[in-house]
Amino acid sequence: MISVAKVQPGNAWRYCVRGVAFGDGRRPARTSLKDAQEQAGLPPGVWTGLGLAALGPTAGSVVAERQAQLLFGEGRHPDADRLERKRLDDGAGPETGAAAGELSESGGQGDTGPRGCCG
């Protein structure tokens, strides 16, 4: 069966998880994406693309569920949590800390992204 979904900023994360990362199936409630993929025999999404050097993940490394949520669901850097925490630990204020997880105009664009999860 073929399905069509309009992907927009507000639902990209939902589409990524429901329609791609979990193979158009239903993920059991309270089951992490990683566990659900393993149980269903689905491979995890991995990072690939020319712009990875700008984002930081290593090519071929597994995309964590939180990374996909940050990138596709919030339009933020896939490691925004870590970047913000580091900046705050270094003494930055809340606004400056939050800015660490924002993508620049050139960051994260092009064909960079998770393969197997909307990439």
Explained architecture:
The chain has 6 helices and 2 strands. The chain has a two-stranded antiparallel ribbon with strand order 1-2. Helix 1 packs across helix 4. Helix content is 40%, strand content 5%. The protein is elongated. The chain has helices spanning 12-21, 33-40, 52-55, 65-74, 80-89, 94-99, and strands at residues 46-48, 113-115. By secondary structure, the chain is mostly helical.
Give the secondary structure arrangement, pairings included:
Blueprint: H1 12-21, H2 33-40, E1 46-48, H3 52-55, H4 65-74, H5 80-89, H6 94-99, E2 113-115
Antiparallel strand pairs: 1-2
Please summarize what this structure is.
By secondary structure, the protein is mainly α.
Q: Radius of gyration, rounded?
A: 15 Å
Q: What are the low-pLDDT stretches, counting only 5+ consecutive residues below 50?
A: 107-119
Termini separation comes to 21 Å
> Which band does the percent of strand residues land in?
5-15%
Shape: elongated
| Mean pLDDT across all amino acids | 77
Q: Element order, helices and strands?
A: HHEHHHHE
Helix fraction by DSSP (H/I, runs of at least 4): 40-55%
Total beta-strand segments? 2
Structural class: mainly alpha
The DSSP helix count reads 6
Describe the main β-sheet briefly: 2 strands, antiparallel
Keywords:
119 residues, mainly alpha, two-stranded antiparallel sheet, 6 helices, 2 strands, 40% helix, disordered C terminus
